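Translate sequence into structure tokens.
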Amino acid sequence: MNKPEARKNIVTPLISIIAVLIGLGLAIYLPNMLKTESPDTVFLQTDAGCSLNNGRCHSKLKDQQLALSIKSETIRSATPMLFEVTLENIQADQVMLDLKGKEMFMGLNQVMLSPVAGQPNQWQGEVTLAVCTTGEMTWISSVVVEKNGLKSQADFKFTAQ
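Result follows.
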């Protein structure tokens, strides 16, 4: 066997082993590198069975509480709706509402809520939902409260036509 052939017989398996090791490394470490949640995010537990269609919903963690309600007569797509957040034992520099379709991607729908004048722990904002072609959509509304880089988050569900 000549030297170029011997070198080729060693290089091909060596390249394959290196490729497998890189692939394993990516499979193990890439999900952790792609996490979108900050380690400084605290998740509040939403009451079981709560639906914004039935009224105000609450989330709690120890002495912290967050309530979300939709202050509109009807909950419908393509109709402006007023969302209101009430905080208890949670300080906030900003409060954001992030709405996502549960069954399918419905586009990016994030709204920064504004403090309610004269109501120190209340925030609100108007949102219009995208129209779902299937008729009815379950929405997940995530309230993200931020203060000095620390975040508190609570998730709530409701349906809209």
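Note: The chain has a mean pLDDT of 83.
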